[in-house]
Amino acid sequence: MVDEEPMPTRWSFQEFKTYYDVKLGRKKPVENGETADKAVSNGNSSGITSNGSFHVKITPDKAIYEQFQSQGRNSVHTNGFTPNIVNGKPPKSLLPPLESAEMRTLAESLSRDIIRGNPNVKWESIKGLENAKRLLKEAVVMPIKYPKYFTGLLSPWKGILLFGPPGTGKTMLAKAVATECNTTFFNISASSVVSKWRGDSEKLVKVLFELARHHAPATIFLDEIDAIISQRGEARSEHEASRRLKTELLIQMDGLTRTDELVFVLAATNLPWELDAAMLRRLEKRILVPLPEPEARRSMFEELLPRQPDEELIPYDLLVDRTEGYSGSDIRLLCKETAMQPLRRLMSQLEQEQDVVPEEELPKVGPVRPEDVEAALRNTRPSAHLLAHKYDKFNADYGSQILQ
């Protein structure tokens, strides 16, 4: 029987303190040969040990510390996020100064929802939706690019609501805003701010807005906001914790209008009529993201089903005429179903083979035929056209329009 290394039974306070000082970057890892008053080594060569045999592995923390030291950076706790130095200025810490260790822990959990890097979604990659794009540029992009003009009464709108049928591109518009403005993008859903522990949900909302102000200019994207702040007081089953969360969110949203930091709340929903009236007041710009127009549908078909040379012409006109009421997601599914038809014909041939055909000998997939388009249209149905009239009514009552 192989002797196993015994596990530690108890750590002293000094051992815990030394270990977490190294882990959080408050103290340099102990090198070999240093005195024992800086760490409990018990004669071993590792940085921290317990009972003379158990070695606490601090190699990754030591490597991180040496990397920061070699690059001339301050040793700060960044939760794994390493910002770049811009114009020789020291990097901004990931977390702002917080009032307690509990709030810092909540901030660290929320920092995972910060999208690192650029979402890389351009305005040109979103077909159609010209009215929604123009309103978003006016509300978010221009105040960040030209802050001189947006002062006083013309201060930028801090709350924007994107509403419309599912699958029309609301999330893509939010990512395009983050790409165009190069802002810190917080991708927040209900799971990010709802906690089972009493009082943590409203604290998470408060820390979220503190983080956004710290990283300004920032965009807080609240996807499916109707799950977080539906109408208050109507449902008897509404829990006290849910009411506190909604109240804290309304308070933080109201506080954005009294600050000069460029923090935008960009919310998206498929059920705008279920939102609370107080939240609608704070979401000052309410932009309809409608079903794609015929020109936008044609552009989608030409991009997803491009015509190959020496192949039959794909009936784009037929596709545009037969897809009235289809969302962008439905059109993508239709194109996928169309492209699957030649592959199904090829798969039926391969199934007749006795042996598995080697990969280098596999035949090419045939072209898309007009009958493939007809088959795909019969097998694909729209999913978002039934409530189109409700979105139009809500847009007429609450929506933001551009007056020519």
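[next item in queue]
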Amino acid sequence: MFKRSLLPLSLCALTLTLAACAPAQTGPLPDPAGFRPAPGDVAQNVEGVGDLGRWMITRDLQNATWLGEKVGGRTLREPINVVMIDAVAKTPEAATRRMLDAMTQAGYGPKNMHSDGYSGYLNGELRGQYPQGKGLAFSDGPWYAANNHGRVFGPFAVGESTVFIASFSRENFRWLPKPGHPYSSFQVAREDLGQQMGAKTVFKPQGYLNLDSALDTPTETTGDHDGRALLLVAQE
């Protein structure tokens, strides 16, 4: 009796969680080719990178706001807080393989039950997310517990290098009153990713890039984000 009761409970939990974590689709999506960020949404002339969009972009071409979750009653803006540069790989395809391998080596392999369809903006180009696939994000743990997770955008060609930009955050898990993933921290996830990448992969931390992207207004916040992106550079 006990074993048979587990299946419907698990299916019910799974259905509720999917409904909570996936953005609703209503009507046709806008064409990404028409995306034009507001001037204040782009950090200009970032050293070694160029003009970098400050925020993760949703599939409907809006600045990402954690699927409407509020922090202290304020809208939570999701910043780009990691930049990866690979001047070693000979092609963007090779650089992409190295980035994907590095994420797995760092313990951040693709995991399911996350929202998807995000993009990042660099030097006039909007590129979609890695990992690719329904409900996937890079994460260091399962969806039903606190975890560090994120999406990587690119590849972007910058001079002789390939650049990826990313947004990483730490989330908790909530069953009640509505299943979901409330925000915990941007800095904790960023720093953990840097430590794991530096210890286990060819991408090594090389300081920070100031994007001046910390928000603290009566209506909007970026939580504990300090306005900077961690710089990870491939060493071999």
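[queue empty]
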